Amino acid sequence: MKRFFTTLSNIWKIEDLRVRIINTLLFLLIYRVGSFIVLPGVDPASLNSQKAKEGLLGLLNMFAGGSFSRASIFALGVMPYISASIVVQLLGIAVPYFTKLQKEGESGRNKLNQWTRYLTIAITAAQAIGYIRTQIAPEAISPVLGATMFNITSVFVLTAGTLFVMWLGEKITDKGIGNGISLIIMVGIIAQLPSAIVTEFSSRVTDTNSGGLLIFIVEIVALIAVVMFTILVVQGTRKVAVQYAKRIVGNKQYGGVRQYIPLKVNAAGVMPIIFAQALMFIPTTVASFFPKMASSTVLILLSNYTSWLHNLVFAILIILFTYFYTAITVNPKQMSDDMKKNGGFIPGVKPGDATVNFIDDVISKITLPGSIFLAMIAIIPALANMAHVNSQFARFFGGTSLIILVGVVLDTLQQVESHLLMRHYDGLMKTGRIKGRTAIPTAAGTTPPAI
């Protein structure tokens, strides 16, 4: 405990770090306050928030920190920006113009950021129209504005809200600590944790048949164990040794040292779960459009996220999407070319195609256990719900929310520790250094979107 307070004191002594932490907290406070401001012309008492807390909409509501169900000005959150970032990244693989921009350094990145912002506006406007039509009932709209005027103003407000949140994220990254967009998503998820814990605690204590306080303690211990397991998956790397040739320039010697390429066990991050979850809601959509098919046994099982068929298909999709996303984001050819330019080689492996094949083989081998572990983490919430854990609390036992929380916290703590070590203070841990999500060279030399 003494070391903990000493570390906090050291953090407060570093002026730059202190200012960055305060800036981060203030920006996040602005975001949380804005998430409770309802769209102009909407009656909060008439909103049916329960519909927006279920299924895929519940996932979006969790990412938006509850703003989605409250019809807030930040209802769409940063998800349109994340979607635009992914689209631009995929364009960098498929379209030569974007591939060229990704290789042009700072000027190319600036142009790509501009394209991402323009695409964010288009995606947000389209989603705003869909949100207004599907999530806000006519009786919740003030008759003073009228339906047409309300729709026009709400689209502008929702689009401006998303752009403002995006601006907050960029300011946190520049003036604060950690990745701003990731922190905004994390704060939105964490904001729902206290109420979920209180609800679960109350249900266990009041219901004598549910096991009482002892079962609640077991659930907390299980949650801690799942978090530790998730950290192992997020942190897991396979180090590939790279030897650099010696070069004599004047009186100095360069190179001749051995370094390592850290290949992530889970290089795809949380994206496979997001893609798989989107596909798993197709059966529910089909059943809503074709009521006669709703009684089909297969559709019923696929629509029930606690059924064995749903979890089996969900796990298989995650494994397949993990391989797919790893293949399009990690480029062994680019890594081999970069090593060759810098005079590096893998000991025992010839440069060129042999190096490409070696790296590709290593990635294929470590992706299999990584994808299986990711699938296990993704289906744990369903298992927790089957064990009669409150559905709101069960979401924190795995899935998208837990992986995002673990990754963002590790990245932020790593930045804090870097500031401490740079000023010759002890780090946050007694042994070793905190490792964030190691950046991996991708197909275009960039890193995947940080979520």
From TrEMBL:
TM segment ranges? 21-42, 71-95, 115-132, 144-168, 180-199, 211-234, 268-290, 310-330, 366-387, 393-413
Q: Which Pfam families match?
A: SecY
Q: Which GO terms describe its biological process?
A: intracellular protein transmembrane transport; protein targeting; protein transport by the Sec complex
- The protein's superkingdom reads Bacteria
Which is a Gene Ontology cellular component entry for this protein? plasma membrane
Gene3D superfamilies from the UniProt entry: SecY subunit domain
Q: How does it sit in the membrane?
A: Multi-pass membrane protein
* Keyword terms: Cell membrane, Membrane, Protein transport, Translocation, Transmembrane, Transmembrane helix, Transport
Chief place where the protein resides:
membrane
User: Where does the record place it?
Assistant: Cell membrane; Membrane
Task: Name the SUPFAM superfamilies on file.
Answer: Preprotein translocase SecY subunit
List the PROSITE patterns hit by this protein, alphabetically: SECY_1, SECY_2
What family does this chain come from, according to its entry? Belongs to the SecY/SEC61-alpha family.
Q: How the protein assembles, per its UniProt entry?
A: Component of the Sec protein translocase complex. Heterotrimer consisting of SecY, SecE and SecG subunits. The heterotrimers can form oligomers, although 1 heterotrimer is thought to be able to translocate proteins. Interacts with the ribosome. Interacts with SecDF, and other proteins may be involved. Interacts with SecA.
What name is this protein filed under?
Answer: Protein translocase subunit SecY
Source lineage: Bacteria, Pseudomonadati, Bacteroidota, Sphingobacteriia, Sphingobacteriales
Q: Which gene encodes it?
A: secY
